[in-house]
Each structure stands twice: as C-alpha cells, then as structure tokens.
Amino acid sequence: KDGMRNVASFNIMMKGLFDHGDIGKASSVWELMQESGIVADSTTHGILVHGLCENGYSSNSLHVLKTAEGKGDVLDCFAYSAMINGLCKQGKTDEAASVLYDMVKSGYTVNAHVYNALINGFVGASKIKDAIRLYHEMGKTHCAPTVVTYNTLINGLCKAERFSEAYDLVREMLEKGCQPGVITISILIKGLCLGHKEDMALNLWNLGISRSLKPDVQMHNILIHGLCTAGKTQLAYPLYLDMNRFNCAPNLVTHNTLMEGFYKEGDLRNASVIWARILRNGLQPDVISYNITLKGLSSCNRVSAAIL
C-alpha cells in the first residue's frame, strides 16, 4: 500500500532482490522509489552499489555512485568500499583508486574498511608497490591500519618474495600495540616456508609464543609441513610433541606430514612411531597415509613389509 511505502521498505525489498540475483526487479523497485518521490538515503545507495557490483554490474554501479555525488545525495563508506571492491574484482584498480581519491576530495573521511578494499585490490593485481604506498597514506591521514590491512599486505609481500618486509610488518604491529593473531602469523609462516626461509619461520613462531599466542592445529601443520619439506623433520617433531601444551590435538594431516618427512630422510623408526601414534590416537588412516607408508617402506628397502 502507498501509505506503507517509505525508504526503509524500499531498501529491504531491493536488498532481498539483489541477494537473490534478481537485478531486473531490484532495478524496477529503484525506479518505482524515484517515481514515488521517496528520497534515497545512504543505505539505499549502499544497497544499490553493492548489489550491482556483486552481480557483475560495476559500470552501472559506478554510474549510480557518480549520479548520487552529482546530486549531493548522502553516501557512506559502505557504498564506496563496495564500489572499490567491485572494480578491483574486475581488475580495474586504477578506476578503484580514482573512486577513493574522489571520495577524499569530496571531504569524506576514509576509514580503514575503504582503504583495505583498495589495498586488497592492488595485492590481487600484483601491484604490491601501490598497496604499500596506500598503506603509508593511511598513516598520513591518521587512519590506523587494522589486522585485515596487515594480513593483506603480509600475504602480498610473501607472494612477491619480499619476506623481510613482511616480517618487519609483524614487528611493526607489535610496536603499535596491534597484536597479530594466529591468522596473521600463519600467513607469514606459510610464505616464509614457501620461500625456503624456515629459520625465519621458526623465529616468528617463537616470537608469537613469547607474546602469548596460542597456535591452532592449522598453524602447527603449516610450520611442520614447511620444515618437513625442507628436510628438517627433526625440528618439526618437537612442535608435534608440544601440541598438547596448547590444548591442540594433532590431526591426520599432522601425522601424515611427519611420517612422510621421516621416510624421506630414511628414518624408518620414527616413521613407524608416527604410524603407531595414528592408530593409538584413534585416527583412521586414509589413502594418503597408506601411500606414504608404501612408498616410504619401499624407499627404505622394506618391500616385503610394504607388501604385507
């Protein structure tokens, strides 16, 4: 009914239609809203921009944003971050950067969520230099980086094999009182291991532990896998034995990784110990477990045991 039509009801209807991917009907509701003389609010524009971008219509979304700016309509950071995300997903990072700078020129206070959207876009496009530059711009505008900011940059730096800079970012987090969590440390440890920087990865692990970080099973598995792959299974084994200290139970992936590491190093005894622990801990060996065992026994000239 006309008497029940207000901006909130139109917003709810448009969001529901966008969420279901019905762009045509959502656009029709938007047109009806304008014809009804109801003034759009910041939520309306956020829903429109986000909905169009999520469904692959970033050009239409940008038109909505620019039209709203031209009319002096109310916009908020959600609309801008959605627009930036949408453009970045299509590889249009230059256009996304223009949106952010237009936002600044218009006098909007850019929050970390908006900066993070563009930083993530730059990292995804392998433009790590631009991502770092934008990170420094955040500091100049007194916008404090969040854990998401650091995680995105650390991931990008690791992919670019700039491990020392990634490590320095973690130290910077600590200096600024931003405690890196399991996800942050895990991202960097994985990157360091892929870059054959196992010693740095172990140092980072110890730094995290000294700061009361409680690693989960995935974080353990990342470092254990990195060490075993590098032929340093003897360094990985104590991490496995120490997991109970963090109330963290090793899973089948943990055991398989260690077992394969020991076999590759010709350590049949410890590989057999891990197999026994799999059974003792009530874990069910999978195809990977059996393949590791068969290949390992064969490589150790225990073909008869492998057949049995």
Secondary-structure map with pairings?
Blueprint: H1 7-19, H2 23-35, H3 42-54, H4 58-71, H5 77-89, H6 93-105, H7 112-124, H8 128-140, H9 147-159, H10 163-175, H11 182-194, H12 198-210, H13 217-229, H14 233-241, H15 252-264, H16 268-280, H17 287-299, H18 303-307
Question: How does this structure look, described?
Answer:
The chain is mainly α and 308 residues long. 72% of the residues lie in helices and 0% in strands. The chain has 18 helices and no strands. It has helices at 7-19, 23-35, 42-54, 58-71, 77-89, 93-105, 112-124, 128-140, 147-159, 163-175, 182-194, 198-210, 217-229, 233-241, 252-264, 268-280, 287-299, 303-307. Helix 3 packs parallel to helix 5 (77-89), helix 7 runs parallel beside helix 9 and helix 9 runs parallel beside helix 11 (182-194). It is elongated. It starts with 6 loop residues before the first helix and ends with a helix.
